[in-house]
């Protein structure tokens, strides 16, 4: 059995339909492709669920159901006990699904006669990745019964009920122990809540040539080091600290200094050659008491910042973690408009009343602004996008990046990184315990370090998000933001 031909690609249901059509138009036998898909499902079911007393294959009327009929035939031929149930009308005559049903040599029972029993393994071939309407009540009842009995489910393409484009649940869905999809991942495999419902994921090559996949795939990928590793700085004997980049992080007031120190420490651990904490006078003592390798600079006013900016060796900035003073933040951002900047937390909120003021300042020249909003902060700058139910998280992030002329790191367990040019990545390596106080401050500092080293903004953000997840995994459950910083591993090209 062959694995995915494009390990990082994420393909929307519409793009997958176009790939299927292109494959048929190129002379490939579409039924042979369905046979490869269904056979893979059957083989995985037999291998992964040897404890099954009975395989129950639930087939819908479309091509997903066709895969199910072929899987049923494959499992029965191996000697397994197989029960087959069909939902709705028979597949359209003359199509591949109808051919698969005819070739199955098993008469399916009506879906509404299915009664789950202990020892069943459910092969869910009801709806494919393009499913976007609410699940009907008859199917929802079966889904709830299977879940209540804790029966293993192997889903074909996506757990039925999950929208492959957005990851949303359309009323009800199966919770799969394992999902088998073909050619490449779909957005619903990585976006929440779909990702939590897929279980282990197998991505199978069914014989569609790579050239056809590349011709119809867009600019959406899973975030991996392969995307940004070539942009990472390679250290050599001639490197000195300024060549590794000088990162500046702005501190909040005397009672709000910890977040900026976390960002600064993370920047240093992530590879910046120097990190300076730009602190208000009243916070200098609090910051000095906790800093060793991170340097300290008194910056209280726009005038002081403007003078400091004459030092062009300062190569990137982080503004926002617990900064507090939104009016000062707006003034500082104006002075930083031609510099490489990570804007987080209070730095984002500072522009909630007039986001265009921020966007216009970074509208020309190379992309140099990275913003790292969570859902609430995103809605403050992009209220219309946040409220549009037709948009997926990926759609929102891409639209926001284009509007703001910034790289958007739309945070969450399914963080999306989007560039104004339309490229986007979905991150999938973050453990759930990263949802802790200070974790976002660490991420801002990590991205700032990559900007300071000269990485392009999109790659700098992507590397920061991936390394953040990697550090969280290494730090382990129970980590704090401080131990997260200590778990940051070196960045290798």
Highlighted features:
493 residues; alpha/beta; Rossmann fold; UDP-N-acetylmuramoyl-L-alanine:D-glutamate ligase; 2 domains; 7-stranded parallel β-sheet; 40% helix
SSE map:
Layout: H1 13-25, H2 30-48, E1 54-59, H3 63-77, E2 82-86, H4 96-104, E3 109-110, E4 120-125, H5 137-148, E5 153-156, E6 178-182, H6 187-190, H7 194-197, E7 200-204, H8 210-216, E8 220-222, H9 225-228, E9 246-250, H10 258-269, E10 274-279, H11 284-288, E11 295-298, H12 302-308, E12 314-319, H13 326-335, E13 341-343, H14 346-349, H15 355-361, E14 369-371, H16 375-381, H17 383-387, H18 393-404, E15 407-410, E16 416-418, E17 424-426, H19 439-452, H20 457-475, H21 481-486
Parallel strand pairs: 1-2, 1-4, 2-3, 4-5, 5-6, 6-7, 8-17, 9-10, 9-12, 10-11, 12-13, 13-14, 14-15
Antiparallel strand pairs: 15-16, 16-17
Helix pairs in contact: 1-8, 2-3, 2-4, 3-4, 10-19, 19-20
Q: What is the fourth-level CATH superfamily of the largest domain?
A: Ribokinase
**Rounded radius of gyration (Å):** 26 Å
Distance between the termini: 32 Å
Fraction of residues in helix:
25-40%
**What is the strand content?**
5-15%
Low-confidence stretches: none
Task: Output the CATH topology of the largest domain.
Answer: UDP-N-acetylmuramoyl-L-alanine:D-glutamate ligase
Shape descriptor reads: elongated
């Amino acid at each position: 059995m062959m694995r995915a031909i494009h390990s990082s690609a994420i393909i929307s249901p519409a793009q997958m339909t176009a790939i299927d059509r292109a494959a048929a138009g190129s002379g490939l036998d579409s039924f042979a492709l369905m046979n490869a898909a269904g056979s893979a499902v059957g083989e995985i079911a037999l291998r992964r669920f040897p404890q099954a007393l009975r395989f129950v294959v639930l087939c819908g009327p479309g091509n997903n159901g066709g895969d199910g009929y072929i899987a049923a035939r494959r499992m029965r031929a191996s000697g397994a006990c197989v029960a087959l149930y069909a939902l709705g009308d028979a597949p359209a005559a003359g199509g591949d699904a109808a051919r698969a049903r005819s070739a199955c040599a098993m008469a399916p029972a009506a879906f509404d006669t299915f009664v789950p029993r202990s020892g069943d393994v459910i092969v869910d071939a009801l709806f494919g990745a393009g499913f976007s309407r609410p699940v009907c009540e008859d199917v929802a009842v079966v889904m709830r019964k299977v879940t209540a009995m804790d029966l293993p489910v192997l889903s074909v393409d996506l757990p039925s009920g999950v929208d492959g484009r957005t990851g949303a649940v359309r009323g009800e869905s199966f919770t799969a122990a394992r999902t088998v999809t073909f050619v490449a991942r779909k957005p619903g495999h990585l976006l929440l809540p779909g990702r939590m419902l897929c279980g282990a994921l197998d991505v199978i090559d069914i014989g569609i040539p790579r050239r056809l996949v590349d011709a119809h795939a867009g600019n959406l990928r899973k975030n991996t080091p392969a995307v940004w590793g070539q942009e990472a700085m390679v250290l050599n004997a001639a490197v000195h600290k300024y060549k590794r980049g000088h990162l500046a992080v702005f501190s909040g007031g005397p009672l709000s200094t910890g977040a900026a120190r976390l960002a600064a420490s993370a920047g240093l651990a992530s590879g910046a050659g120097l990190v300076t904490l730009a602190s208000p006078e009243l916070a200098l003592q609090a910051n000095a008491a906790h800093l060793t390798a991170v340097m300290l600079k008194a910056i209280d006013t726009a005038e002081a910042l403007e003078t400091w900016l004459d030092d062009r060796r300062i190569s990137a900035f982080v503004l926002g973690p617990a900064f507090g003073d939104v009016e000062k933040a707006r003034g500082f951002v104006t002075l930083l408009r031609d510099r490489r900047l990570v804007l987080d937390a209070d730095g984002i909120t500072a522009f909630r009343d007039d986001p265009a003021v921020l966007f216009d300042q970074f509208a020309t020249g190379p992309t140099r602004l990275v913003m790292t909003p969570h859902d609430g902060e995103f809605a403050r700058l992009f209220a219309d996008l946040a409220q549009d139910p037709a948009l997926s998280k990926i759609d929102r992030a891409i639209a926001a990046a284009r509007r703001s002329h910034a790289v958007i790191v739309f945070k969450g367990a399914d963080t999306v990184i989007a560039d104004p040019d339309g490229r986007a990545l979905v991150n999938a390596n973050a453990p759930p315990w990263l949802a802790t106080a200070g974790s976002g401050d660490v991420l801002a500092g990590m991205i700032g370090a990559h900007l300071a080293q000269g990485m392009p903004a999109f790659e700098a953000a992507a590397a920061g998000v991936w390394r953040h997840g990697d550090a969280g995994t290494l730090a382990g459950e129970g980590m704090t933001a401080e131990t997260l910083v200590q778990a940051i591993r070196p960045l290798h090209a």
